[in-house]
Amino acid sequence: MSRSKAEQLALAHSESGLHCAESVASAITHLFCPEQTEIACRMATGFGGGMAGSRQEACGALTGGVIAIGLLCGRATPDQDREPAYQVTTAYRERFIAQFGASICQTLRDNFSTHDTRTACRSLTAEAAGILYDVLSEYGYRVKM
What are the residue ranges spanned by the domains of the chain? Predict the structure, then answer.
């Protein structure tokens, strides 16, 4: 498996009608914990377009990735360590912002070089999945397909 597979899956999900958060969450969980793919997609539904389409909050591609991170390395009880999830989330967020220049949906859309926001969002979504794939791989998470 490779980064390009994560990007291809996210793009395919986006083209099928899933939004940014659903597409990243589904693509990443499909690769790293396939038994959680449906639940990840469902959990991501409210986060599309900067939270329910508001465009005022974090980009759905970013939040969808954080949902996938939680499923992969989050905790289920207070006595479990949250640091693994925090470390991966921090790395993902920092790389996302370094690549795209922002994390807020509307700011990202304002910075697109095209008026075709649907295509631009799909491209960003695919690249965000690739970024998260790289981060997870660097932290030792492996594809389970």
Answer: 3-138
| Distance of alpha carbon 4 from alpha carbon 2, whole angstroms | 5
Q: Classify 120 as helix, strand or coil.
A: helix
Please name the residue that has the structure tokens 């996210």: 10
The SS3 assignment for 107 reads helix
Q: How far apart are CA 12 and CA 24, in angstroms?
A: 10
Nearest Cα to Cα of residue 28 among 139, 115, 140, 126: 126
| Digit-coded pLDDT (tens) for 53-98 | 999 999 999 999 999 999 999 999 999 999 999 999 999 999 999 9
| Partners of residue 58 on adjacent β-strands | 104
